[in-house]
Specification:
The protein is mostly beta strands and 339 residues long. Helix content is 0%, strand content 45%. It has a six-stranded antiparallel sheet with strand order 9-10-13-12-11-14, with no helix packed on it. Strands 1, 2, 3 and 4 form a four-stranded antiparallel sheet that branches. The chain is globular, with a radius of gyration of 22 Å.
Amino acid sequence: EFGNQYIRFYKDDGQITSSGSAYEISSPYTTAQLFDLKFAQSADVMYICNENHPVKKLSRTGHTSWTLADVEFTDGPYLDSNTTSVTMTPSGTSGSITITASAPTFVSGDVNRLINFSNGYAKITGFTSDTVVSATVEDNFDNTNAVTDWKLGAFSTRTGHPRCVSFFEQRLVFAGTSQQPQTMFFSKSGDYENMTIGTNDDDAMIYTIASNQVNAIQALKATRTLIVMTTGGEYAVSSGAAQDAITPTNINIRKQSNYGSSGVDALSIGNATIFLQRSRRKIRELAYNFDTDGYTAPDLTILADHVSESGFTDMSYQQEPYSVVWAVRADGQMAGLTY
């Protein structure tokens, strides 16, 4: 449970219950941000995303041993390489150094951001001026020459952090920063925090949706394909062949519908993805249709659309004993959709 800036766990003989001793660790999330948190979990590790905070990793190593820490990504992800005449000059090739730009480049929001050049990369640890920052080298630079071929990290206070996350085909996928709202960042295969891009099949990759409008990615759901939900439509990411995994050389993305998502985290139920449309009035079922060889998204609230007049703010799914999608309304009431 996230609330009042604490994560609270109740333990009683190894079982999580509503009674027993309370175990707390602090978190940076405010009450207003709770509905915007997105999660992806692998065993005892959960990745948590919110556009106002660095990606967090909640790890459990025992009943009373939990940690919440920023994810330390390996070599990326990065924005596009510099195309201007501005140079970067490191004071050293390893350890704690300063990096000097030939023209105003840095802002205070670049602290904790990665920077890559001279076949190495560093993490910015302090802001001195718009041309000078201190940094810790993560992968040694080749030399201390001034270079124009440099690139800054894609995740930062300045550019925004990912708003959504999902596992897909042994990769951890992030998406939806404020500066790159239509871009997805795939980790290396089987190495969830390594964002080193390349052309090998297991390399990390960055993919931006090309569309006529800027439609921010709101949610990611892994099914037979990776479902990408944006403010203007729904997309499916795959390799193009059912038996092949996605790689940097075969990834393709195709639009499936034009309804748009509200940002409320979608639900994976059976072979379908249940999502709340952008207006927060309609709940739709995105499912693959063999007759059309594509996805369709019929309106599940069509028989009782008056129920959602105040709009929905959150959804959850109850599988047993009855299959029900529960939706919280903006007026504080809760509606149940038998599915």
